[in-house]
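Each record in this resource describes a single protein on a pair of labelled lines. An example record follows, reproduced without changes.
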Amino acid sequence: MNKWNIDSEVIHKTSVDPQSSGAATVNGTVIDRTGYLSMVGHGRVGAVSGSPSTTSVAFKVQHGAKSDGTDMADFTDEQGNGPAIGTVTAATTGVKQGFNLRGAKQYIRIVATVSFTGGTSPAALIYANALLGGVVEAPAA
């Protein structure tokens, strides 16, 4: 383990690929968190089109035992964090939240729920990722 280079101790995984979304629930890609005990979930909204009067993108974490995501449920850690990462209500802003994954099942994903009030076919550019850390066993040097 090199205290000057955290690359061997953390991994970055995209769950919700960058995309334009109208009002919808977007289930992110399932991530295998095996070997990692903590994460920072991050969601971001880019440009918003269609002139809505309000925009809301709620990001949350789910977990499950199946790699296909068919058994996913909202996850709240031992400290009460979650399932929400947070809600973004303005363009070009983001939210983040740390989670202790000790009680989580093997697979996680981030879900984005996009909603608008008004506008003409509104859409928002969104993405979400997870930074996994707290390795169970440090990689070999």
In short: The mean pLDDT is 93.
